[in-house]
């Protein structure tokens, strides 16, 4: 099979927008962090439109990450202006536009013949 020049498309047919600049990925959360605790922490940076802690569907235990969506970009900028974030005695990371970061990693890892159209 000739694979030279072949392309891999990683597009999502259900996602029509490239990203939501007000949505943040929150990684490295404590297992004890609740959705209410996450919302309370991030409300001090701006109006939180949506907040969720991802949980295992079987055990209902936190998976250690979540998402926060702000009503406007000012909330995101306030969060990013602070270098260190800690909640429930655990320092965590914040990322905006997670798909962009994934694309950059994939391009670095598989630079030849890979087309990322999502």
TrEMBL record:
Any one GO MF annotation of this record: mRNA binding
Q: What is this protein called?
A: RNA-binding protein Musashi homolog 1-like
Q: Which cellular component terms (GO) are annotated to the entry?
A: cytoplasm
Q: Which organism is it from?
A: Gouania willdenowi (Blunt-snouted clingfish)
Tell me which residues make up the RRM domain. Answer: 22-104
> Which top-level group of life is the source organism from?
Eukaryota
Query: Where is there biased composition of kind Low complexity?
Result: 1-16
- Map out region (Disordered) in residue numbers: 1-21
According to its UniProt entry, the protein's GO biological process terms are: central nervous system development; regulation of translation
Alphabetically list the UniProt keywords: Repeat, RNA-binding
């Amino acid at each position: 099979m000739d694979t030279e020049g072949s392309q891999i498309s990683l597009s999502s047919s259900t996602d029509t927008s490239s990203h939501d600049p007000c949505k943040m990925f929150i990684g490295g959360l404590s297992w004890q962090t609740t959705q209410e605790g996450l919302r309370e922490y991030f409300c001090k940076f701006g109006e939180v439109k949506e907040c969720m802690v991802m949980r295992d569907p079987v055990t209902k235990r936190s998976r250690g990450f979540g998402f926060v969506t702000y009503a406007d970009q000012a909330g995101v900028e306030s969060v990013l202006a602070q270098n260190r974030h800690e909640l429930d005695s655990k320092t965590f990371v914040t990322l905006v536009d997670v798909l962009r970061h994934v694309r950059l990693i994939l391009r670095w890892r598989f630079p030849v013949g890979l087309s990322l159209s999502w």
